[in-house]
Amino acid sequence: MSKTTVRATALTTALVVGALLLVGSLIGAIPVIAGILGDVWNGRADLLTGRSPQIPIDGSSAPVDSDGVAYNGVTISSDAPLALPRALQAIAATLNVMAIAGGSLLVVLLALRMLRSRPFARLLSWGLGIVGLIAIAAAAIAPQLEVAAVDVAVRELGYAVAAEGHDGTFTADGPDAIALPLWDPLWMLDRVDITLLLIGIMLAVVALLVAEGTRMQKDTEGLV
Question: Fewer CB within a 10 Å sphere, N or C end of the chain?
């Protein structure tokens, strides 16, 4: 098999895979975003309660912890309008979709240009830069929007919030309280998707390198 055939096969495969990912991400985003905006709103938060999560073997009642016991990942559902929480979640979902769709579109465009033997350096540098920035936003901003949506929704729905309207004493009969996301820098950093962030940074750096390489090549050609 010749190098030309191998090259054409690889580029065609990349084109097909990129196109499938692009179409799949866009089609899959429609019901997700539509559900966020028009269906029952869902969010996840931590629940502080006096009901201990341990289940006694003898079937007796679980002990009560007056200091409260935290349940991680409790789902809150509501059919209330919650305009701002829905908008925040929709933006977060859109950023995640854009990262996948943007990368897929770039693969498709690059494969088409290479199959047609057309210059692609400018497309590569700009495309990598844009996709890199989108990936950085999806990694760093989208998680903050998700927890901000829960923060706002819990307050709009009127749930008791720990340290805000709750006396800190927990009993078996309640009242329980929601532990809202913390907004200090360490907790915000902990929510960042490090893997996606590093991918975005690497794409942005490669974009700068490609642009610089293209500029240096043009300068060199001008000297010849």
Answer: C
